[in-house]
Write a structure and sequence with these properties.
Elements (H helix, E strand, L loop, with lengths): L4 E4 L14 H12 L3 E4 L9 H6 L6 E3 L4 E4 L4 E5 L4 H14 L2 E6 L2 E4 L4 H11 L9 E3 L3 H7 L3 E7 L3 H15 L2 E6 L2 E5 L5 H11 L7 E5 L5 H6 L2 E4 L5 H4 L4 E2 L7 H10 L1
Length: 272
């Protein structure tokens, strides 16, 4: 069956370690689009943190955000489908964060909220400041995440970071056991926590089906544990060379890393 859809993770896949798109990738994806492929971004990011890449790729499809928690329509500026975290579970998680002294960023509505500016927040904010104002993601410091959780319309996910990854692993395990939430690693020192059942693969399958297509017609590119669900669900799962071996093992093909022209090369040699 011929491929019709290219599903693309951002960080560690389409983006370089400096959070930029390679010119070769932009060119190859533009050619794929001209040849009739639909391109869709499938990311752990909030929709407010995708603007520059979405515009550079000149996309018109919705984006799958926060590891499949919701589907966002950039043209209409609205959420199309979503499975946010129930407030009661979010509040319990915040209590656990406080008691274990783990820092969390809460992704809500149109912003990312935090109490203390951790290294992760500072790094991302520094990146945000390099963008034009209309493309900057919204980071807001709040006195209490607990109070904020009750004021917002939707809580998409929590992103937790800690320099002590063993502590983070233990905490994620405790959260899964006690709250029954989904914990997925999206970076070497970041674990994302969302409603159980949410995944990139699930939301991508829903969208592909809504387009009258089959997952057999999808080529998915990813590099991290939160990408495994879509690499396995796609007709062809492509892992980056910089991915962990456990992620590579779940893909059909492994290409070069995210600093090389490997995505462009794959598109030209296999898809066009």
């Amino acid at each position: 069956m011929t491929s019709r859809v290219l599903a693309l993770d951002l960080d560690g896949t389409l983006l370089t370690p400096k959070k930029t798109l390679l010119p070769s990738s932009i060119e190859a994806l533009a050619r794929a689009k001209a040849a009739g492929y639909q391109l869709i971004i499938v990311t752990g990011r909030h929709h407010v943190a995708i603007h520059p890449f979405y515009q550079a790729l000149a996309l018109d499809t919705p984006a799958i955000c926060c590891n499949g928690t919701y589907l966002y329509d950039y043209q209409a500026k609205k959420v199309l489908t979503a499975d946010p975290l129930p407030v009661s579970q979010a509040v319990k998680l915040i209590e656990m964060l406080e008691s274990h002294d783990v820092h969390g960023l809460m992704y809500v509505d149109n912003a990312m909220l935090y109490e203390k500016p951790t290294g992760h927040v500072i790094r991302t904010n520094n990146w945000a400041q390099t963008l034009p104002p209309e493309q900057r993601p919204v980071f807001t410091q709040v006195d209490s995440l607990r109070a904020a959780a009750r004021d917002v319309d939707a809580i998409w996910k929590f992103a937790l970071t800690d320099e002590d990854t063993n502590k983070l692993k233990q905490f994620a395990h405790t959260v899964e056991q006690t709250l029954g939430l989904e914990c997925e690693w999206s970076w070497h020192d970041q674990v994302d926590i969302a409603r159980t059942g949410n995944s990139k693969g699930k939301r991508l399958t829903e969208w592909v089906t809504s387009q009258g297509l089959s997952m057999k017609e999808v080529v998915a590119f990813g590099d991290n544990y939160n990408d495994i669900s879509m690499l396995e669900a796609a007709g062809l799962g492509v892992a980056m060379g910089n991915a962990d071996d456990a992620v590579k093992a779940r893909a059909n093909v492994v290409i070069g890393d995210n600093t090389t022209d490997s995505i462009a090369s794959f598109i030209y040699s296999h898809l066009l």
